[in-house]
Every structure is written in C-alpha cells, then in structure tokens.
Amino acid sequence: MIEVIISVAILATAALAVFATLRAASSAVHHSAMLTNAVLLAENRLTESRLCASLSYGKTNGTVAPYTWCTQITPTPCENLAAISISIQWREQNRPQRYPLTSLIHIEPQLEGQ
User: Fold this and answer.
1) Does CATH place domain 2-106 in 3.30.1300.30?
2) Which of 52, 54, 86, 91 is the most exposed place for a label (fewest CB within 10 A)?
3) Is the pTM of this model over 0.90?
4) 8 Å CB contact between 39 and 99
5) What pLDDT band is residue 29 in, cutting at 50, 70 and 90?
6) H/E/C letters for each residue in 38-80?
7) Where are the domains of the chain?
8) Which pLDDT band, with edges at 50, 70 and 90, does 97 fall under?
C-alpha cells in the first residue's frame, strides 16, 4: 500500500513538472510570435520609408494594434545619407517590450523653392 502512495506522489510531481514546462513553452511561443510581428512591422516601416518619394528628416509615430511605432530620420555627416531609427513597442504580460531597428538610407536633397 505504501508503494502505491509513493508512486502516486512521484506521478503527481512529474505531472506538475510537465505542466509547468508546457506553460513556459506556451509563453515562449507567444513571445516569439509577438517579436516576429514586431520585426515584420519594423521592416515594413523601413521599406515604406525607402520607397517614399519625398523623404525628409523628422519623426513620425503610429499605431498598429497592439504595437506602437516611432520612425526617426536624422542626418549623417555623409551627403545624401540619413540614419533611420525605427522603434516598435508593445506590452506583453504587463511588461513593456521594444524592438529597435536602425539603418542608413539614401535621401534626396531638398532643393530650394520646391
């Protein structure tokens, strides 16, 4: 009889360990999906900025639920070259998350009178 009680206790402990592992794995999968979507959004913002005909220095913000993004284009010492910084932010499990992306892009000089 004591062997049965001990084996049930061991089984219960093993089951709890399995459930805890499954919960951690589920959380990791959710975080991975959120991060992948943030990367895709950042790449999308970068591509849209590169394709924009009238690109200028400055900062823009936007929201694509559940993400907020900020794009900042700043000059560099090189002529016709700008630094672009894209920051994607979201909340996950009541904690702020952030994915930054920085790159260089070609920018046409603004001619006076245009």
Assistant:
1) yes
2) 54
3) no
4) yes
5) very high
6) HHHHHHHHHHHHHHCCCCCCEEEEEEECCEEEEEEEEECCCCC
7) 2-106
8) very high
